[in-house]
Amino acid sequence: MPYFDAASSAPLHPVARQALLAALDEGWADPARLYREGRRARLLLDAAREAAADAVGARPDELTFTSSGTRALHDGIAGALAGRRRAGRHLVHSAVEHSAVLHAAAAHEAAGGTVAEVPVDRAGRVAPGAYAAALRAAPGPTALACLQSANHEVGTRQPVAEAAAECAEAGVPLLVDAAQSLAFGPVPGDWSLLTASAHKWGGPPGVGLLAVRKGVRFAPQGPADERESGRAPGFENIPAVVAAAASLRAVREEAAAEAERLRELVDRIRARVPRLVPDVEVVGDPERRLPHLVTFSCLYVDGEALLHELDRAGFSVSSGSSCTSGTLTPSHVLRAMGVLSEGNVRVSLPLGTAEEDVERFLAVLPDVVRGVRGRLGAPERAEEATAASAGTGARDSGGSAGPGAGGSGDEEAELVVDSLGKLCPIPVIELAKVIGEVPVGGLVTVLADDEAARLDIPAWCAMRGHTYEGERPADRGTAYRVRRRA
Asked: Which of these, 135, 178, 183, lies nearest to 157 by C-alpha position?
């Protein structure tokens, strides 16, 4: 069964398995002890630290092993903010950072600090000069800035070197989340702190990396501990650390050649999915991106149903749709980009993915999407389905409404679609079914209380050539107004 979710967790690399088994026999003792078994464990830990530091581009004494990438982010942000408390209490991060960064920022704000979010473009990338502008606009001195090296949902690479230079000029340290990109090479630029997670590159879960450059003010939080320079308390998981370092080095050696092959396979998916499946938006930067990852969103599709059907067809993929995330709120990454969140599919190919598996995925996908759309009653083409949709109950009981309908507050008559209580992608499907019933230039108002509608209705308008005229509060939910143009 093809596994296409390496961005969540890559399969355990054979070198990691071998190193883990060997270290279980040799590295079980306390590395802080001076007897033979302790010295042997210390040698393994030191060798792993040197190998990992070399891959990161740091000194061994700058690198700490943590219990996860999330732990590394939390500890790195908290330690840097505490170390620079006298300099300021302002934190800057991009709008598409990993949720761990957003949670750390929320905790900082709750404790009295201030936070600024740097926006991204529709490809998910921060603009040149954006961090410099955010630092200039800060309400006070900035303690720390955070920027991922590449996005975990859409694969877009960020201009880390440029942002690091902007931060350095302002005297602000930059923390880089390199979890998604480290397997493909070191992070460029003069960054100050860096985090990563071993299971993203084929190491064992439960190992994170935190690098803190010499000269960066850093104050570890929590009770003091004598291990890992006081930055990660507790007994080191030496077998897992050894396996993580060994696999990182092995993956790096393979990635140079494998990256080009994976990029060609991803290019194939990016080009052919929109041709094979109608009404699909491929998201993320088409060029400045990770080689193994592609994300696309399908109109009129329930993301959870789509993923289940692909699983039945033998493919393991992921999604950023609100329908599959256990919440009614769409992915903060897709929301920040302003792209469609319906039927979102993320394909992230592990090293060694066979070309035949990608071809089979492309062969299976159109029928899977068609089947899901059919069960939801979605139109094949919105305006072509007008006659078929008449009397289906997609509209409110009155059909069209007069002044003030849906909270519009103007005198222009409009067609109102009542989608209250309905989840994605039903509000958009109902909008598509009735758009042809108003003349060109006419208005349709969709009443919806699903948060995904705030993202998906404007995205549908952009894809279908209509004008999105904004939202207004309604007696219940929100009124989204669309003017027919096509």
From this structure: 178
